[in-house]
Design brief:
Strand 4, helix 2 and strand 5 form a beta-alpha-beta unit. The chain is α+β, with helices and mostly antiparallel strands. It has two domains: 267 residues, Dipeptide-binding Protein, domain 3; 147 residues, Periplasmic binding protein-like II (D-Maltodextrin-Binding Protein, domain 2). It is globular. The strands form nine sheets. The protein has a seven-stranded mixed sheet, with helices on one face. Strands 20-21-22-11-23 form a five-stranded mixed sheet.
Length: 582
C-alpha cells in the first residue's frame, strides 16, 4: 500500500508537502507523554513512536509551528509522531521537573556567558530538576571540558570553549535551531532611557528617567505566571522577566555582559578566592537588617534547600550552577565575606548574580514540602514549592499587591541603597511599578498605543512585528537576545541516547528556511547555543549548518538521503516505517 509516508521515497519533498501529508497528525492537549516502545521484547520490532512536547499557540506561536515542522519531517522518514501541547507551567514541569518527554521544542534561557552550558549539560545534573541537564545527557569528555572552561580565563578559556563546542556539535544532545530577535513596544513621551540597559534585567527599568509628574511605570505583560508565583527558585514559573530582580538584590548585576557591583560595594579575586564587602546599613523590606550571614545562608540554600538536614543535597531548580562553584564561604563580621571558589575570575564574578534571601524567612522553608492533593518528591522542601506571596527582599521595589492573572503592583523601597547621595547607581525614578497581565501581543501593543501601558515587557511574537506602527509618542525597541530555540532529546530513553540518531534528526531541519517561514526573518539560524563572540570560525553559520547540514536544499527534504542516514545509524525500515526493537 502506498501512502504519504512511503510514496516516492527517493524524491525530495518540499516542507509544505511534508506538512500537508501530516493532516492526520494527532495533537494531544493534555495527558501523559506517550512512551517510546523499546527494549521490552528483543524479538519484537515496532515502528518508532514519539511525542513532541511544546507550548500551544497562545503560549508560543513560533514554538508550536517549529514542533509541527519537526513532526512533519520525522513522519517523512517513517516515524510515528504526536504533538503534546502544554501550558507554560505544565510544559516546564514535564521537561524540567518530571522529565516526561521524548522530544520537546521550545526556548532555552541561554545566557550571555557560555558557562550556562555547565549546568545545562554536565552529567552530575542529569537527574536534577530545572534547566540543569533536562536531557539526561552524560559524556565524560564533555564534563572535563565544561569543568576546564570554568577554571580558565582569557584566551585559554576561548580555546577550551572551541573544543567544547566542537564536541557538542558532534554529539547533538539538543539541536540549536535559531536565536530569535527580541522586540518590545514602548512609549517615549513618559520615559527616556529605553534601551540603555536590557529590558529583561533590573537595569532596564532603573535606567529610565521619568517625565514630569510621572510617578507610575506601567507594563503590559503577556505571561500571567508572575501574578501566580513570586518564588525566585521555581523553574516552571520563572522566565526572562526582570521583576524579581527588582525585588531581590544580588551582590552583582550584569550590564552588557559585564558584571558590576550592586549589593556588594566591591570585591577582589585572587586564585580562587573572592573577597567581598557589602554596602553598609542595608535592610530587607520588613526592616530587618541584611548582613553577611544572610549572604552566606543564601548560597547554602542554593546548594541544598534542606540545609544539610537530608541524606543527600536537595538543590533548588534555579541558580544551581552558580552555587555549585562555591566550595566554602567564610563570614568575617557583618559586612565581609570570603568565597572559596572552584572557578576562574570570569565565572567567579557571575556567581555573585544569585539573589540574596532573608535568612529569617527562608530558614523555616527548609522543611519538607506538603502540597495538598499533590505527591511531592522525596527531598522537596517548602523553599521550592511555596508561592512566596508576599515576597520579602531588599531590592529597589517591594511587593504591593496582586490579583492572579490580572496584575502585580510593586512599590518603590525608599530605603534602598541606590537612593543614597553617595551611591552612583541607577535608582527607581517612579513610586510604583504596575505589571498588567494581557495574554496577547496584539492587545499588549494596543495598551501601549492608547497610553494604558509604557512597555510590552515580554518579548513580542514575530507575527505582529510587521504591523507595528510607531507614532511620535511610541517606538519599537529591539534588544540583544541570549535565548535560543532548540529541539531537546530525552537521552534517558532509546533511541535518543544514540548520537548517530540525534545527528540524523538534526539534519532533517532546514534552519534557514525555518527562520524565514516561522519567524518571518526575525531570527538568526545557528549551529551553536552560544553568542557569536564565543562561536569558533569553523562552527559559524555560513548559509548552512557546518556541523549537521540539511538533507536537501532550498527547503526541500531529500527523504532518501535522510532514510539512508537512519539505516547507517543502525535502524531498519519495513513498509516505509522506521523500526526499533521493543
Amino acid at each position: 500500500m502506498t501512502d504519504e509516508k512511503t510514496a516516492s521515497p527517493g524524491r525530495p519533498r518540499s516542507r509544505r508537502a511534508v506538512l500537508a501529508g501530516t493532516a492526520g497528525l494527532a495533537v494531544a492537549t493534555s495527558g501523559c507523554v506517550r512512551q517510546v516502545r523499546t527494549v521490552v521484547n528483543r524479538d519484537a520490532v515496532d515502528q518508532l513512536s514519539v511525542t513532541i512536547v511544546t507550548l500551544p499557540a497562545d503560549g508560543d506561536r513560533e514554538g508550536i509551528r517549529l514542533a509541527r515542522e519537526v513532526a512533519a519531517v520525522l513522519e517523512a522518514v517513517g516515524v510515528d509522531v504526536s504533538v503534546d501541547m502544554r501550558s507554560n507551567e505544565e510544559f516546564l514541569r514535564a521537561i524540567l521537573i518530571n522529565h516526561e518527554f521524548d522530544l520537546y521544542v521550545g526556548r532555552h534561557p541561554g545566557g550571555t556567558d557560555p558557562d550556562f552550558l555547565y549546568e545545562a549539560l554536565h552529567s552530575v545534573y542529569a537527574e536534577e530538576s530545572g534547566w540543569q541537564n533536562p536531557f539526561g545527557y552524560a559524556n565524560l569528555q564533555l564534563d572535563d571540558l565544561l569543568e576546564a572552561q570554568r577554571l580558565a580565563d582569557g584566551e585559554e578559556r576561548e580555546a577550551v570553549m572551541a573544543e567544547l563546542l566542537e564536541e557538542l556539535a558532534r554529539e547533538q544532545p539538543f539541536v540549536p535551531i535559531c536565536v530569535p530577535e527580541e522586540h518590545r513596544f514602548v512609549r517615549t513621551d513618559r520615559f527616556d532611557g529605553w534601551g540603555e540597559a536590557h529590558p529583561a534585567t533590573r537595569l532596564g527599568y532603573l535606567e529610565l528617567e521619568a517625565g514630569d509628574d510621572v510617578d507610575r511605570l506601567r507594563t503590559a505583560h503577556t505571561d500571567a505566571r508572575i501574578s501566580e508565583n513570586l518564588n525566585p527558585l521555581t523553574a516552571e514559573y520563572r522566565d526572562h522577566e526582570p521583576f524579581l530582580e527588582l525585588v531581590y538584590d544580588s551582590l552583582a548585576t550584569e550590564r552588557d555582559s559585564e558584571i558590576e557591583p550592586w549589593l556588594a560595594e566591591d570585591w577582589t579575586y585572587d586564585d580562587g578566592t573572592l573577597r567581598v564587602r557589602l554596602r553598609e546599613d542595608c535592610r530587607f523590606h520588613d526592616d530587618e537588617p541584611l548582613d553577611a550571614d544572610d549572604v552566606e545562608f543564601s548560597y547554602r540554600l542554593l546548594q541544598d534547600t534542606e540545609l544539610e538536614d537530608g541524606e543527600s543535597p536537595s538543590p533548588p531548580p534555579r541558580y544551581r550552577g552558580l552555587a555549585a562553584a562555591v566550595d566554602a564561604i567564610d563570614v568575617d563580621g557583618e559586612l565581609d565575606l570570603e568565597f572559596e571558589l572552584d572557578a576562574g575570575e570570569a565565572v567567579a564574578e557571575r556567581v555573585l548574580t544569585a539573589p540574596i534571601l532573608p535568612e529569617h524567612i527562608w530558614t523555616e522553608r527548609a522543611a519538607p514540602a506538603t502540597v495538598r492533593g499533590v505527591s511531592v518528591a522525596q527531598g522537596a522542601t517548602e523553599a521550592v514549592t511555596v508561592d512566596n506571596v508576599p515576597p520579602v527582599g531588599s531590592g529597589p521595589f517591594r511587593f504591593g499587591s496582586r490579583t492572579e492573572r490580572e496584575h502585580v503592583t510593586l512599590e518603590r523601597f525608599d530605603d534602598h541603597f541606590t537612593r543614597r547621595e553617595d551611591v552612583d547607581l541607577p535608582e527607581a525614578s517612579v513610586e510604583e511599578l504596575r505589571i498588567q497581565i494581557d495574554p496577547r501581543s496584539t492587545s499588549a501593543i494596543e495598551l501601549v498605543s492608547t497610553d494604558s501601558a509604557d512597555i510590552t515587557s515580554a518579548i513580542l511574537e514575530t507575527y505582529v512585528l510587521d504591523d507595528l506602527e510607531p507614532a511620535p509618542e511610541t517606538a519599537p525597541l529591539e534588544s540583544p537576545s541570549w535565548t535560543f530555540y532548540h529541539l531537546g532529546f530525552n537521552t534517558r530513553r532509546a533511541p535518543f541516547a544514540n548520537a548517530r540518531f540525534r545527528r540524523a534528526v538534526a539534519r532533517l531541519l532546514d534552519k534557514d528556511w525555518l527562520v524565514e517561514d516561522v519567524f518571518h526573518g526575525y531570527a538568526a539560524p545557528t549551529a551553536t547555543p552560544v553568542t557569536e563572540e564565543w562561536t569558533p570560525e569553523e562552527l559559524a553559520w555560513n548559509g548552512e549548518d557546518p556541523a549537521t547540514p540539511f538533507f536537501g536544499s532550498d527547503g526541500e527534504l531529500d527523504v532518501e538521503a535522510a532514510r539512508e542516514a537512519f539505516e547507517d545509524a543502525g535502524f531498519s525500515y519495513d513498509d516505509g516505517a522506521l523500526r526499533v526493537r521493543r
